[in-house]
Task: inverse folding
């Protein structure tokens, strides 16, 4: 067992009762900041729960082992969506981020940046870098390096690059450590980009050879060993801008399934994990401290809207929405854990409005199916699914509900997530499928635009609507919460009316850690910064 393993297990047993009691209070519906009426048992505010404040100085040395949701196949932020569930805690350990999101304050804080300020007319942002910051190859993190990395990320069509290129009309080097971004329209949510891929700056030598990418960042750790899809080990940097991190090493490992991850956490084999299964999270929040983040659109039914697929018919899409019972789906898939909802933004969301969501109405669904069939639409659909217990239960429930209104569903199981991604995102070879947009409130416009904008490469459902494109742009450029709220309500209503997909549940990300882990700092979308983390 690794260093401190027996001590860690003992500490967990000693702390379990206290942590459990605190978490039970947090999860109750008796009022306070973490619950709202009618949402019994579900936390509705992002934040760290159950952590015991550390006493004394951080313990120096040791290894922290993290089991993410999915292990990265590469270490290039531009190659896949750099968010928490796709291995961005790993990326942040190597590259750091220019900014981080502080959920408690509801605002963005400098990380590698010294400051990031908006102009009075909302048309420019000034990035000021900390002086003296170095990449792991010894080169300077300066304005030229930032501009070069951002241009490279944009050319590679990294996540959110479409929004960036449509709004950012210039990047000006105004000093060795200063960059000014000029915008064509206001974008108060612009800082969010720099908590993700745009904020993970790569040293120029890292991409100088297009055929030989090297993961050279300014983060607290440097890559020691990387086996794509399997494991990553990083070592502390003596020349990190904060000083050498407390941890000597961080190991990122792949463990399939959320329950095995929590078992490994209990046994002391790992120190931290990334969970998304609502049923497992419900148990884990009663046992471990960690970072909890509620998400809108956590569970949706994807509908292929493209020509040649039955979902191109709006009547059939509306029939599907009317046929599905979110409460029954949550019961079948997650044994009742989570919150069933057909709304885009649930009651707990700061963007919840008065958009009218579809209601479960089998009779209306049957009429719409008959209307679609009379118009020549095929009412036999292929549902593509993973072959695991939760996915099987979801597929079976979908099959029963849609079959009851005259839609014949044939389930096509695939073996791996890679196979599923290929079917949905590369080949578009499906009619309906499980999906998740996992929309945190702070980055709602980024996630919705990626999902629904006509030109977005991540628009898996193939939905194309000029009116929706305008609404998404309105949300991006809205100034002030009232204007943004109004824009999101219009987007939600159009989703409910057009049914490009069907929402059926909301749920959280949860990143639990052992009680003797301290100093982990959450950012956007479940990304955890480990530069000040320690074990002891």
Result:
């Amino acid at each position: 067992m690794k260093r401190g393993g027996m001590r860690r297990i003992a500490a967990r047993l000693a702390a379990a009762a206290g942590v459990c009691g605190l978490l039970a209070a947090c999860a109750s519906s008796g009022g306070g900041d973490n619950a709202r009426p009618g949402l019994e048992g579900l936390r509705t505010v992002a934040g760290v729960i159950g952590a015991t404040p550390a006493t004394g100085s951080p313990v120096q040395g040791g290894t922290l082992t993290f089991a993410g949701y999915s292990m990265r196949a590469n270490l290039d932020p531009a190659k896949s969506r750099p968010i928490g569930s796709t291995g961005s805690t790993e990326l942040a350990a190597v590259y750091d981020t220019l900014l981080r999101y502080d959920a408690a304050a509801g605002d963005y804080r400098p990380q590698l940046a010294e400051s990031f300020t908006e102009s009075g007319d909302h048309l420019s942002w000034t990035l000021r870098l900390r002086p003296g910051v170095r990449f792991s190859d010894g080169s300077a993190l300066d304005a030229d390096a930032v501009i070069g990395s951002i241009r490279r990320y944009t050319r590679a069509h990294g996540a959110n690059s479409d929004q960036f290129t449509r709004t950012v009309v210039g990047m000006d080097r105004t000093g060795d450590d200063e960059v000014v971004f000029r915008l064509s329209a206001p974008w108060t949510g612009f800082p969010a980009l720099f908590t993700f891929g745009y904020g993970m700056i790569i040293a120029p030598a890292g991409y100088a050879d297009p055929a030989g990418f090297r993961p050279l960042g300014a983060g607290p750790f440097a890559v020691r060993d990387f086996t794509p899809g399997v494991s990553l080990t990083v070592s502390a940097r003596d020349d990190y801008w904060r000083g050498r991190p407390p941890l000597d090493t961080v190991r990122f490992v792949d463990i399939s399934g959320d329950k095995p991850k929590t078992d490994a956490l209990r046994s002391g084999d790992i120190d931290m994990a990334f969970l998304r299964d609502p049923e497992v999270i419900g148990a884990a929040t009663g046992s471990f401290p960690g970072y909890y983040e509620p998400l809108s659109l956590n569970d949706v039914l994807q509908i292929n809207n493209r020509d040649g697929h039955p979902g191109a018919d709006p009547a059939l899409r509306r029939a599907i929405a009317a046929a599905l019972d979110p409460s029954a789906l949550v019961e079948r898939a997650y044994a009742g854990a989570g919150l069933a909802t057909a709304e885009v933004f649930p009651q707990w969301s700061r963007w919840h409005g008065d958009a009218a969501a579809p209601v479960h109405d089998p009779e209306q669904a049957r009429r719409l199916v008959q209307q679609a069939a009379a118009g020549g639409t095929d009412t036999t659909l292929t549902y593509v699914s993973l072959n695991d217990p939760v996915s099987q239960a979801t597929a079976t429930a979908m099959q029963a509900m849609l079959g009851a209104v005259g839609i014949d569903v044939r389930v096509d199981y695939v073996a791996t997530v890679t196979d599923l991604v290929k079917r949905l995102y590369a080949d578009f070879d499906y009619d309906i499928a499980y999906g998740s947009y996992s929309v945190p409130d702070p980055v709602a416009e980024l996630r919705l635009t990626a999902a629904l904008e006509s030109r977005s490469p991540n628009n898996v459902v193939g939905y194309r609507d000029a009116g929706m494109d305008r609404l998404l742009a309105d949300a991006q450029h809205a100034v002030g919460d009232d204007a943004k709220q109004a824009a999101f309500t219009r987007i939600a209503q159009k989703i409910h009316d057009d049914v490009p997909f069907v929402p059926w549940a909301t749920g959280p990300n949860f990143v639990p850690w052992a009680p003797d882990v301290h100093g982990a700092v959450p950012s956007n979308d479940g990304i955890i910064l480990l530069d000040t983390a320690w074990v002891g």
User: Anything to note?
Assistant: Residues 167 and 404 are 47 Å apart (CA to CA). The longest strand covers residues 290-303.
